[in-house]
Amino acid sequence: MTLFSIIEKLLALSNEDRPCHESEINKKLPWDAWIDLLEKFKIENGHLCVPQRYVSGGAKLGIWVSQQRSKKQAGKLSEQEIARLEAFPGWKRKVLKSQSSRNK
């Protein structure tokens, strides 16, 4: 069982079975799990311009991507995290408003 399949099962739980509120799930997902969700978004959409309001199975991927861009700009990401993000073809630190509004 892969990390991604475990995450999908956790996010697919019904509201009654969920161990915590969705916002708590966002806080508890490991960084590598977010990378897996970003990779899935890239495969499904062909780009990494994740709209800020984009949610995948309860995980607020759009907000997470925005936070990573802000953290990078503020120097708060590790070298390893920066390398993982920049390994994605098409990773951009900033997205033009016209691109982000087109993807909403």
Question: Can you offer a commentary on this structure?
Answer:
With 104 residues, this protein is mainly α. Helices cover 57% and strands 0% of the residues. It has six helices and no strands. It has helices at 3-12, 22-28, 31-45, 61-73, 79-86, 97-102. The protein is globular.
Tag the structure with descriptive keywords:
104 residues; mainly alpha
What is the straight-line distance between the termini?
33 Å
Number of strands: 0
> Main sheet?
none
Strand content is under 5%
- C-alpha geometry: globular
Low-confidence stretches: 14-22, 96-100
Helix amount, in percent? Answer: 55-70%
Secondary structure category: mainly alpha
Whole-number tally of structural domains: 1
Average pLDDT, rounded to a whole number, is 78
Number of helices: 6
**H-E string:** HHHHHH
Rg: 14 Å
